[in-house]
């Protein structure tokens, strides 16, 4: 029988809620929660040890690379309010080195009790210094000109600065619900649930793929989001 206790400290309500929400989406892990002195305790158990351990390791990495990392950049960036443009920029920063950072974080999760803040504060110093340097680069760029168009250009520059597969995406709707499919890997893409606004989460999910081309079928996205995406990828509208 697999079991793990995860501590999310420091009053990080959004991180704890994200963690519980993702557990709710599984059918193989049961859990209970408790809050003491600003720390959320999540006690989880499952019959399938290998499946549950891999899921938990990735979920803890998600919390650190999405919730904690987005909080970090929110504090470090001096970017004018750009609406969806700023969300796309945040997405490019969150996912820039994810393939390198995730395995390092997962190595720290193989314990019965895992403190997420402990990993963040004591095991990710070098990683956070890299984030700080990246934020400084962005701040230098936006100090020259800070408007929506420049933010999109910076986003495109960041996305092009790392080697990625040439990903082609399809964005479409099923029963009125937007969906993303990576046509290169033939896999459905899950939006990243950082925001209360579903379209912002959808935009993050798209940016995470580092798309080169995006085929938009019907009208699953608002004109404002499509305008941002046109600055970072080739867009094809195929109609309904």
Layout: helices, strands, pairs:
Elements: E1 2-8, H1 13-24, E2 30-36, E3 39-46, H2 49-76, H3 84-95, H4 98-106, E4 113-115, H5 116-122, H6 125-144, H7 148-160, E5 167-174, E6 177-182, E7 187-189, H8 198-208, E8 211-217, H9 223-229, E9 234-239
Parallel strand pairs: 1-4, 5-8, 8-9
Antiparallel strand pairs: 1-3, 2-3, 5-6, 6-7
What does it look like?
This protein has about 240 residues and is an alpha/beta fold. The chain is built from 9 helices and 9 strands. It has helices at about 15-25, 50-75, 85-95, 100-105, 115-120, 125-145, 150-160, 200-210, 225-230; strands at about 1-10, 30-35, 40-45, 115, 165-175, 175-180, 185-190, 210-215, 235-240. The strands form 2 sheets. The protein has a 5-stranded mixed β-sheet, covered by helices on one side. Helix 1 packs antiparallel against helix 2 (about 50-75) and helix 2 (about 50-75) runs parallel beside helix 6. The longest helix is centred in the N-terminal third of the chain and has 28 residues, at about 50-75. The radius of gyration is 19 Å and the shape is globular. The N and C termini lie far apart (about 50 Å). The relative contact order is 0.13. The mean pLDDT is about 90.
């Amino acid at each position: 029988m697999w079991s793990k206790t995860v501590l999310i400290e420091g009053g990080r309500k959004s991180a704890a809620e994200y963690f519980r929400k993702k557990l709710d989406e599984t059918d193989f892990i049961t859990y209970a929660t408790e809050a003491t002195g600003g720390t959320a305790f999540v006690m989880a158990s499952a019959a399938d040890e290998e499946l549950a351990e891999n899921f938990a390791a990735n979920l803890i990495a998600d919390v650190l690379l999405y919730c904690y990392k987005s909080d970090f950049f929110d504090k470090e960036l001096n970017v004018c309010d750009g609406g969806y443009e700023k969300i796309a920029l945040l997405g490019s920063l969150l996912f820039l080195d994810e393939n390198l950072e995730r395995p390092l974080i997962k190595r720290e999760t193989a314990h019965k009790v895992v403190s997420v803040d402990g990993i963040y504060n004591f095991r990710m110093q070098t990683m956070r210094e890299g984030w700080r340097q990246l934020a400084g680069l962005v701040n230098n760029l936006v100090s020259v000109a800070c408007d929506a168009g420049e933010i999109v250009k910076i986003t495109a520059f960041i996305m092009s600065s790392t080697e990625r597969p040439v990903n082609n995406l399809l964005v479409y709707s099923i029963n009125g619900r937007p969906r993303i499919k990576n046509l290169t890997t033939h896999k459905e893409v899950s939006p990243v649930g950082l925001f209360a606004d579903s379209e912002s989460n959808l935009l993050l999910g798209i940016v995470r793929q580092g798309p080169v081309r995006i085929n938009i079928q019907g009208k699953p996205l608002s004109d404002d989001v499509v305008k941002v995406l046109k600055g970072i990828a080739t867009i094809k509208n195929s109609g309904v």
